[in-house]
Structure formats: C-alpha cells, structure tokens
Amino acid sequence: MSYFKNVQPIQFEGKDSTNPLAFKHYNPREVVAGKTMEEHLRFAVAYWHTFTANGTDPFGAGTFVRDWDRYQGMDLAKARVEANFEFVEKLGVPYFCFHDRDIAPEGDTLQETNANLDAIVGMMKDYMKTSKVKLLWNTANMFTNPRFVHGAGTACNADVYAYAAAQVKKGLEVGKELGAENYVFWGGREGYETLLNTDMKLELDNLAHLYRMAIDYAQEIGFDAQFLIEPKPKEPTKHQYDTDAATTIAFLQTYGLKDHFKLNLEANHATLAGHTFEHELRVARINGVLGSLDANQGDLLLGWDTDEFPTDLYSATLTMYEVLQNGGLGRGGVNFDAKVRRGSFEAEDLFHAHIAGMDTFAKGLKTAAKLIEDRVFEDAIDSRYASFTEGIGLEVVSGKATLRSLEAYALHNHPIRNVSGRQEVLRATLNRYLLSE
Asked: 58, 68, 235, 342: which could join 79 in a potential S-S bond, CB 3.0 to 4.6 Å?
C-alpha cells in the first residue's frame, strides 16, 4: 500500500519555484566543484525521527498522524519498512540509516529480539534488491532500555556489558547483511552522573576493549564499513565521555584506535558542547577524522537537543566549506538526524522538512564552492600569517628557532606592528556570496 499517496516523486524546479513539494536548489545531477550534488551530499533519511517518532514531548502525548501507526508489534515494524522505502524513493535520496531498535521491537529474550531483527532485515534486503536506496549506516541503540541505566560499554555491571557486546556483534552482522557503508557508535549512556561512585579509568578501558572487539569481529566477518563515533556533550548523561571532537580524538589516540575510526558530527551536539558546527568539523578535518554529518540545528534559546531541520544558510555554507576542504566525506554522508516540530503532524510535513534541509545544504554547497574557487578565506588567512613564511617566522615553522634565537630577534625588533583581522569584512563578504549565488 501507499503511505504517501498524495505525494509524487520530488523534482528540481529551480529557485523561482513556489511549489512546496519541489527542490529549489538541490539538483542531484548538477555538477559543483567536479562532482554532482548527489555525490557531494550523499543525503540519508533518519529512520528514528521519520518513522518511529510520534511527537511526544515531556508535557504531552504524541501528535503525529501516520498511517502505519494503525499496526502493532512486528506488523508495525513491517509497515514502517514499506513506508521507509516509499518515502526515500519519492524524496530521491540515495540512503537511509537506523538504530537496531528503530526497525524491530525487542522481545522477552535476546534470542527473540534477534529473531525479530532478522525478519525485518530480510524484508529490507528484499526491498533493496529492486531499489536504488542503500544503507549509509546502522548502529545499536544501547541507551533506551532500562538495562542501560548505568551505561553499556562503560557499565558497572559485567552482565550489561556482555549484553551490549552481543548487541554490537549483531549490529555488525546486520550492517554486513545490508551492505552498510558505515557503522556508528553513539554513547548516549557512556558517561557518568557523579565521580563519587565512578571508576573512570576502568570505564574508559572497557569502552576501548569493546571498540577493539568490534574491529576484530568486523574483520573476521568481512564487514569493511567505516567505523564512526558520534560525539555529544550531555543529555542524557551529565558527563559523556565523547563530549566533543577534541575529547573523542584524544580518547582514540590514547587507546591506539585513531586509525580505525572517523567522527560522525552533529550540528546540535556541537552547540550543546559550546562550539559552532564548523569548529567541530575543523577540529576533525585537521586531525584526519572527519567522516560523516548529522544534519540538523538546535534552538539557541533552548538548552537541549531540539533536532530541528537545518535551514541556516550561513551555517550550511561554512559546513560545506569544511567538507570541500576535506576532499568530501568519503564513505560518509549527510543524514537528517532531525524531526518535524510537534505541530507539523501531517505526513506531508515530512517531505516539506527534508526538502528544506536538502535545499539548505545544496545552497551551502554552491556558495562554499564559489568561496573556495575565489580563495576568499584562503587569501585572507595567507595574508594574516605571512610573517611565518619568511625570516624569523619561517625559522619557527621549520623548527630551526630556539628560545635564544627568538630572544635575540625580539631584543632588536621594535616596535611590533599588528594588522587588523578584518572579521567584519570577511563576514560581509560571506553575506555577499550567499546573496549573489
């Protein structure tokens, strides 16, 4: 059956279109900076927000009207598979992604849970035989069930740790079965509430053990997906171990895991950590671990993870600037870890939201490519750091300088003359490019 019978496949109609069910900037076949938009952006639909969310908030019941919600249990899970492939194909994106518990309900035992998962994975595999839609990544939900109250890979209970390991093992098998291009670790409960009852060293050691076991098992079964870690600073756990890009990179370096992982970075998680999204992307990029993006935005007036669809052109442009400077996302992509607002409860709103997000990133891609082509920021940065390309600055960069040589230079070099950073000029220039493209 059709769950979106009133919606036809979404087409590109150009920036002058007033059709809410058409793309204004995202043209999958348009070539930008040597690749098509589809190749650059590698969009993915997030199963959890799109097909399992119901609009519940802490103060009220669900509001979303979804045809598949007439079913229950495994029938509901199967209906969501049907809805997923219809939606993704009509939207015209190449990928989707999911947590294991998004696609199949838990049973009374792990055996029953895995059987439910196998049934849905088999159904998905059948759909993928005749569909162009692929799996960008899958992951294990090790944060919703009460068993994970004290964590999963960092649990104080070895039985919980073993369950989490079994769940990761199954997730890797599912990823291989469906041809996932990446596998994500998100440690929602991997952290602590108070140090008064926490052995931080043991917890971090055990988390590293879990990652090493995952690496070994993926190699054993021939699952060659890129492993990704998704940083987040808080909510639900007060102190989460992978709080931001820099902290996560430090963990990977400490445990000798950096060669096996890249980062899946989310805009709303960046702002919760007190950073801009482009800051997190830059930290990952210069450390060689920028892997994939969770595309959303937060409400800066609210202190939690609102997961709004991205419509901020300024942020999207700076995001795509980092992606282009990174040489692309490799096997990663841009997945919409975003949900429609509680008042946007009709099924058609799911299309409106994704179209807005895709157009935003397409506009950001085009603007970023033009900025790079014209060397707007590169020339400004080269000029600002020109003193390190000759003389005493070059000696510093080349490693030839010593404290004695720098002191000798400083004693005979006065006065010091700084030049303006021209922040306002650069921001105005960025605005000009955004408005002209």
From this structure: 68
- Dihedral sign, Cα of residue 268, residue 269, residue 271, residue 277: negative
DSSP E strands in 199-317: the ranges are: 226-229, 239-240, 261-266, 290-294
Using DSSP's 3-state secondary structure scheme, residue 386 falls into helix
Residue 242 has pLDDT above 70, yes or no: yes
And the tokens for 95? 């990928």
Q: How far is CA 168 from CA 5, 107, 140, 264, in A?
A: 37, 17, 6, 18
Q: How big is the CA angle at 115 (ends 207 and 78), to the nearest 5 degrees?
A: 105
Angstrom distance (rounded) from CA 87 to CA 2: 10
Cis status of the peptide bond prior to 105, with omega within 30 of 0:
no
3-state secondary structure of 12: strand
**Residue from 217, 294, 290, 228 nearest 257 by CA:** 228
Closest CA to 232 of 277, 185, 272, 287: 272
Task: Name the 3-class secondary structure at 6.
Answer: coil
Give CA–CA dist 86/91, Å, rounded. Answer: 9
Spatial contact of 124 and 163, defined as CB atoms under 8 Å apart: no
Helix ranges restricted to H, 55-99: 73-91
Joined together, the tokens standing for residue 290 give: 């920028």
| Active site amino acids | 99, 102
Do 298 and 271 touch, CB atoms closer than 8 A? yes
Residue burial 98-122, b: 16+ Cβ < 10 Å; e: rest = bbbbbbbebeeeeeebbebbeebbe
pLDDT tens digit sequence for 143-184: 999 999 999 999 999 999 999 999 999 999 999 999 999 999
Q: Is the dihedral of CA 298, 301, 303, 306 positive or negative?
A: negative
